[in-house]
C-alpha cells in the first residue's frame, strides 16, 4: 500500500477549487460577508465602550462583545466549513454542486460540526501545550476528521477514529503538506495586510471597524477557507483511495 502523493493531492485540490468556485466558493463568500458584518458591529460596540471609558482597553477579553465575535466565528465557521466540505466532496465524486447544496448541508451538519471543531481545537491545543510533537501528530492524525464527518455520517467521535485510520502511514507527509501550505498562506496574508496597515496583535487592529480592512480580511478569509477545505477534501479523497475505499463508494 502506498502513501500520500504531494503532486496528486495538490492537483486534486486545485481541481476542486476550480470546479466549485460558483458553489462552495460563493457560499463561503456570502457567509464571510455576513460574519464580517456582524463582527464589525460588535467591534463598534466594543470600541465605543472603550472610548466612553466604560471599559479599559486591557479588559477587552472580558467584554461581552468580544466573546460575541468568538461565538459568531465558531458557529459561522462551522457552518461554512461543513457546507463547503459537503459541496467539494460531491464535486470530487463528479456530481454537480449548487450553492443551495452547500447551504443545506452546512445548516444540517451545524451541531456536529461545532462539536467536532471544539473537540479538535481543545485536543490540538492540549497536545501543543503538553509537548510540541504530540500536537503535530494530532494535527495530521485528525486532519480528515471533518470530511469524514460530512461524507460518512459516522458521528463526531467516529470521525476522529475514521481519520486516525485513514491517515495511518501518511501522517508526516500530511503534516508537512499542511505546514508548507500554512506558511505560504501566512506569507501572502502578511504582505497584503501590511499593505493596508494591519498590525497583528495590536489593540487598534483587534477593535478596528474600518470597512476597507474588514473587506480585505473577509476576502482573505474566504480565500483561505476555500483553499483549506479543498486541500483537506483532496487529502481525504486520496487516502480513501489508498485504503481501497473510494469517496464515491463511501456515500453509497
Question: Which descriptors apply to this entry?
Answer:
12 helices, 252 residues, globular, disordered C terminus, mainly alpha
What does this structure look like?
There is one protein chain. The chain is mostly helical. It is built from twelve helices and no strands.
* Largest sheet composition: none
**Helicity level:** over 70%
Distance between the termini: 24 Å
Summed up, the helix count is 12
Report Rg.
Answer: 19 Å
Give the SSE order as H and E letters. Answer: HHHHHHHHHHHH
Overall average residue pLDDT: 82
Give me the count of strands: 0
Question: What is the topology?
Answer:
Blueprint: H1 6-19, H2 21-51, H3 64-92, H4 99-108, H5 110-130, H6 132-141, H7 145-152, H8 156-167, H9 171-195, H10 203-207, H11 211-242, H12 247-251
Helix pairs in contact: 1-2, 1-11, 2-3, 2-4, 2-11, 3-4, 3-5, 3-7, 3-11, 5-6, 6-9, 7-8, 9-11
Could you provide a short overview of the structure?
With about 250 residues, the chain is mainly alpha-helical. Helices cover about 80% and strands about 0% of the residues.
Amino acid at each position: 500500500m502506498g502513501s500520500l502523493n504531494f503532486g496528486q493531492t495538490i492537483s486534486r485540490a486545485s481541481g476542486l477549487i476550480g470546479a466549485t468556485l460558483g458553489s462552495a466558493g460563493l457560499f463561503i463568500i456570502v457567509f464571510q460577508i455576513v460574519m464580517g458584518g456582524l463582527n464589525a458591529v460588535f467591534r463598534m460596540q466594543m470600541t465605543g465602550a472603550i472610548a466612553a471609558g466604560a471599559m479599559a482597553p486591557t479588559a477587552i477579553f472580558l467584554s461581552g462583545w468580544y466573546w460575541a465575535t468568538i461565538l459568531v466565528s465558531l458557529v459561522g465557521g462551522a457552518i461554512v466549513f461543513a457546507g463547503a466540505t459537503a459541496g467539494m466532496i460531491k464535486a470530487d465524486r463528479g456530481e454537480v454542486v449548487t450553492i443551495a447544496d452547500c447551504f443545506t448541508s452546512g445548516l444540517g451538519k451545524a451541531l456536529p460540526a461545532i462539536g467536532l471543531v471544539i473537540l479538535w481545537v481543545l485536543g490540538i491545543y492540549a497536545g501543543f501545550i503538553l509537548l510540541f510533537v504530540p500536537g503535530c501528530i494530532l494535527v495530521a492524525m485528525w486532519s480528515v476528521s471533518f470530511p469524514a464527518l460530512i461524507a460518512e455520517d459516522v458521528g463526531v467521535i467516529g470521525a476522529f477514529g475514521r481519520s486516525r485510520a485513514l491517515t495511518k502511514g501518511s501522517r508526516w507527509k500530511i503534516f508537512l503538506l499542511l505546514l508548507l501550505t500554512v506558511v505560504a498562506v501566512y506569507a501572502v496574508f502578511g504582505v497584503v495586510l501590511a499593505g493596508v496597515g494591519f498590525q497583528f496583535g495590536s489593540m487598534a487592529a483587534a477593535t478596528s471597524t474600518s470597512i476597507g480592512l474588514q473587506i480585505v480580511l473577509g476576502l482573505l478569509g474566504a480565500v483561505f477557507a476555500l483553499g483549506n477545505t479543498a486541500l483537506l477534501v483532496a487529502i481525504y479523497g486520496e487516502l480513501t483511495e489508498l485504503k481501497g475505499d473510494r469517496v464515491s463508494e463511501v456515500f453509497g
